[in-house]
Specification:
The chain is an all-alpha fold and 113 residues long. The protein contains four helices and no strands.
């Protein structure tokens, strides 16, 4: 179940990162940040992701997974002002190309079967 998987994922993350936490003087801002991260980023997003994985085939899920690093580069440039280098463009192109080849080949394999 997506909620069960998200719970265990979050517990492991907390266990790994807890030794590195420094409690600030302003606990109100800490509580607000933890509430937003806990609800939106660490619960809603993974639950939606796991529910989506239940509805698609493994091949399509893998292909969609290829888009994650490419979108991270684009969103980093858009929202954080990060620079896109030629290595980023080359890597993103190779990722998208391999996803396309995989989708094309798996489509032909399923048609021939």
């Amino acid at each position: 179940h997506p909620l069960f998987m998200t719970l265990w994922q979050n517990l492991v993350i907390v266990a790994v990162l807890l030794p590195f936490v420094r409690v600030p003087d302003d606990l109100r801002s800490l509580f607000l940040a933890c509430a937003v991260m806990g609800i939106v980023h660490s619960t809603v997003a993974p639950v939606l992701y796991f529910k989506g994985l239940q509805r698609v085939t493994a091949n399509k899920a893998a292909i969609l997974g290829y888009l994650e690093p490419v979108s991270a580069i684009l969103l980093g440039a858009l929202f954080l002002g990060e620079t896109i280098t030629s290595r980023n463009i080359l890597g993103g192109t190779l990722i998208l190309l391999s996803g396309y080849i995989t989708a094309r080949d798996s489509g032909e394999a399923s048609l021939g079967a």
